[in-house]
What we know:
Blueprint: E1 4-5, H1 17-30, H2 39-45, E2 50-51, H3 64-76, H4 85-93, H5 98-105, H6 114-125
Antiparallel strand pairs: 1-2
Amino acid sequence: MKRIPTFSEGSRLDDNYYVFIKALGIELEKERLIDKYEQSTWMYIFSGLDTFLESEQFIWLGDKNHCIYLIDELVKMNIINGKNINSKIERFFLIKNAAQTRYSYEPRKPMGSEVIDQIISRVLNSL
Length: 127
């Protein structure tokens, strides 16, 4: 079986990392951007540990470029590590061609990305 790395913690939030990740998942479900928030699965895909399971996935219900933008913003803010980010987006959010999608809107933000900015801001302000 192939080991699959999960998203790992950046250096910005230290002790509040898991509090942030948990609140982010709840907000994304509330905004109907992910299909179903399952805390243990959500927390695991942001644990930095390897996984073998195929069940640790979330269906992104919003615009696919918004998912990619969200993850990119978390990397830019040093909340998560950016190593192998495209394969992780594709694996855990079932989005194909993450890099190609990103390059379709860069260097600008994707249309409607204010929703993602507001979610990140709300969660950070709640810490």
